[in-house]
Design goal:
The protein has 7 helices and 10 strands. It is an alpha/beta fold. The chain is globular, with a radius of gyration of 17 Å. The protein binds adenosine-5'-triphosphate.
Length: about 230
Amino acid sequence: MSSRLLVVENVSRTFVSAADAVPAVRDASLVAHAGEFVCVFGASGSGKSTLVNLITGLDTADAGRILVGQAELGLLGESRRARLRLDTIGVVFQDHNLIEEFTALENVALPLEATRNSRAQCREGRRRALEQLDRVGLADVAHRLPRHLSGGQRQRVGIARALVGDRRVLVADEPTGALDSRGSRELFELIRSLCDDGVLAVVCSHDPMCREIADTVYEMVDGRLHAAAGVPA
Ligand SMILES: Nc1ncnc2c1ncn2[C@@H]1O[C@H](COP(=O)(O)OP(=O)(O)OP(=O)(O)O)[C@@H](O)[C@H]1O
């Protein structure tokens, strides 16, 4: 397999309040490569969203280390972690989080416009956004508002937005939670084809279809990550 893009090494995260301490992620480790489809399979409350937040630098670990490419997240300040999300790692959630007043194209172009100001740069951003929409099979609905798209199409727009700007790592938290089984299969197959194209996808899901289609499967149980039986980690 090709280059190592993500390393999670003995990572833990406990939420402490006055009343109690919840160990949401406990001593979790995984290694993943460009072109790999990794499924983190687990029940509700097992710690998947916490892991997603740690991998994407939206939250910080109490122990252990996480490397995305060459960057060690624990050594980066908030603004450099935000930069990493713009350059390398994109996130998709169950709720697509699109801006309802913006077209599909405008939504996808948004991450690029955060760092590009001139008109020429904006035009270039739109061109690259259209390229990403084409990659997820939605070039023909680029000018539609999210409310005129199906649930599956909205998730595809979310994936295009997560990858625009040549980001190579896609992290998804229950991306098919709001889709029927056909829509779920189509979305997982899209993610599969993006991986075949070199993207690393880490998909947290409790959908058994995700396990079937992934290259590597981890199970998350009470915050602990286990390589699923019979699957090389
Ligand atoms: N900010 C927080 N403060 C306190 N406890 C939290 C916080 N976030 C998560 N938890 C707790 O950590 C544990 C893991 O939650 P997490 O959301 O990561 O699980 P999950 O597998 O993503 O579940 P779901 O699919 O239902 O979102 C749960 O017991 C949850 O209540």
